[in-house]
C-alpha cells in the first residue's frame, strides 16, 4: 500500500506541475505577441521614414534647378509647388472633360456642360454668384479663345480655373462678375461703399496674408481704402467699372502661384534649421514631414 500511495502522489505532483507549466505558457503568450507587434510597428515606422527619405533624396535635384546650387530657395520651392498644382488641375480637368464631352469629339460645348451642383465661393465665404452663377454662358464664351463655340482641353481647364488662366477675356469676365456681385444698387458700377465692404478686405488680406473681420474698420483702414479707390478710379467719376478693377483682379482671385508661395513659405519655416530662408538636403531629411503630402501626391501622379 505504501508503494501505491507514493506512486499516486508522484503522479499527482507531475500533473500539478504540468498544469502550472501550461498556465505559465498561456500567460506569456500575449506578452510575446505584444513584443512581436511592437517590433513590427517599429520596423514599419523605420521603413516609412526610410521611404520618405528616399523620396526626398530623389526629388531634391528636381526642385533645386534655378540655379542648381544644393540649396532649395523659396522661388524654387514655389515653382515646384505650382507645377504640382497645375498638373493636378489639368488631371481633374481631363476627368471632368470625359464626363461632359457627351459626343466624345474631344470638345465640350455649352449645351454639353451641365451647371454644377454647388456654387463657387470666395475665401471669405461669400458666394461668387449674382442672378445666375459662375457657369454663365458669358464665362464659357470668355474661355473659348478661338471663338468656335467649343472648348478644347486647354480652354476647358481655363474655364474651370479662371484665376490661373492667362486668357485676357477671362480676366475681363472675372472683373465683370465682381461688379455684378458687389453692385448692390444695380447701377452697373461699384461705388466706394460697395468697394470698401468686400473688395477692399480681399485686397488687404492678400497684401497682408491675413484674414480679418470685414465688419471691423478704423480711420486708417478707411483712409487706405480711399487712396486705393482713387488710384483705381482712372476717370475720376467716383465709381469703379469692370475695366478699372483689372489692376487688382489677381488679388480678388488669387492664382495658384499665390498659394504655392504660401505653401513654400510654410514648409521652409518648418524645415529650416539655420534660418537662412532656404533648405539643404540634410534639413529636408531631418524634417521630412512638411513635405509628406506633396511628395506622396507627386508619386501618385507619376503612377497615374
Report on the architecture of this protein:
With 304 residues, the chain is mostly helical. The chain has 2 domains: 57-69 and 259-303, no CATH class; 74-258, no CATH class. Helix content is 62%, strand content 1%. It contains 11 helices and 2 strands; from the N terminus they run ααβαβαααααααα. It has helices at 2-63, 74-100, 137-143, 153-160, 168-182, 192-208, 219-232, 249-252, 256-271, 281-286, 292-303, and strands at residues 108-109, 150-151. A two-stranded antiparallel ribbon has the order 1-2. The longest helix is centred in the N-terminal third of the chain and has 62 residues, at 2-63. The chain is flat. The N and C termini lie far apart (85 Å). The model is unreliable at 1-44, 117-132 and 300-304 (pLDDT under 50).
State the gist of this model:
With 304 residues, the chain is mostly helical. The protein folds into 2 domains: 57-69 and 259-303, no CATH class; 74-258, no CATH class. It has 11 helices and 2 strands, in the order H-H-E-H-E-H-H-H-H-H-H-H-H.
Number of strands: 2
Structural class determined from secondary elements: mainly alpha
Describe the biggest sheet? 2 strands, antiparallel
Termini, distance in Å? 85 Å
Provide the number of structural domains: 2
Poorly predicted sequence stretches spanning 5 or more consecutive residues? 1-44, 117-132, 300-304
Strands of the widest sheet, in order across it, are 1-2
Amino acid at each position: 500500500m505504501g508503494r501505491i500511495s507514493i506512486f499516486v502522489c508522484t503522479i499527482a505532483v507531475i500533473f500539478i506541475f504540468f498544469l502550472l507549466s501550461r498556465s505559465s505558457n498561456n500567460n506569456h503568450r500575449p506578452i510575446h505577441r505584444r513584443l512581436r507587434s511592437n517590433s513590427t510597428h517599429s520596423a514599419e515606422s523605420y521603413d516609412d521614414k526610410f521611404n520618405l527619405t528616399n523620396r526626398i533624396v530623389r526629388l531634391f535635384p528636381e526642385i533645386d534647378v534655378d540655379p542648381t546650387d544644393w540649396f532649395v530657395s523659396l522661388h524654387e520651392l514655389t515653382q515646384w509647388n505650382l507645377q504640382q498644382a497645375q498638373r493636378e488641375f489639368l488631371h481633374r480637368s481631363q476627368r471632368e472633360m470625359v464626363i461632359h464631352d457627351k459626343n466624345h469629339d474631344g470638345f465640350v460645348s455649352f449645351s454639353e456642360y451641365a451647371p454644377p451642383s454647388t456654387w463657387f465661393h470666395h475665401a471669405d465665404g461669400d458666394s461668387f454668384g449674382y442672378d445666375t452663377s459662375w457657369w454663365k454662358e458669358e464665362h464659357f464664351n470668355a474661355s473659348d479663345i478661338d471663338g468656335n463655340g467649343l472648348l478644347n482641353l486647354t480652354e476647358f481647364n481655363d474655364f474651370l480655373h479662371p484665376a490661373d488662366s492667362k486668357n485676357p477675356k477671362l480676366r475681363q469676365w472675372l472683373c465683370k462678375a465682381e461688379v455684378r456681385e458687389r453692385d448692390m444698387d444695380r447701377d452697373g458700377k461699384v461705388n466706394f461703399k460697395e468697394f470698401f465692404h468686400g473688395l477692399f478686405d480681399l485686397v488687404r488680406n492678400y497684401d497682408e496674408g491675413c484674414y480679418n473681420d470685414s465688419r471691423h474698420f478704423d480711420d486708417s483702414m478707411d483712409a487706405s481704402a480711399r487712396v486705393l479707390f482713387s488710384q483705381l478710379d482712372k476717370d475720376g467719376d467716383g465709381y469703379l467699372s469692370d475695366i478699372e478693377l483689372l489692376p487688382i483682379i489677381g488679388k480678388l482671385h488669387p492664382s495658384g502661384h499665390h498659394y504655392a508661395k504660401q505653401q513654400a513659405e510654410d514648409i521652409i519655416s518648418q524645415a529650416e534649421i539655420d534660418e537662412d530662408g532656404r533648405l539643404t538636403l540634410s534639413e529636408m531629411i531631418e524634417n521630412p514631414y512638411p513635405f509628406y503630402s506633396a511628395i506622396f501626391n507627386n508619386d501618385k501622379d507619376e503612377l497615374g
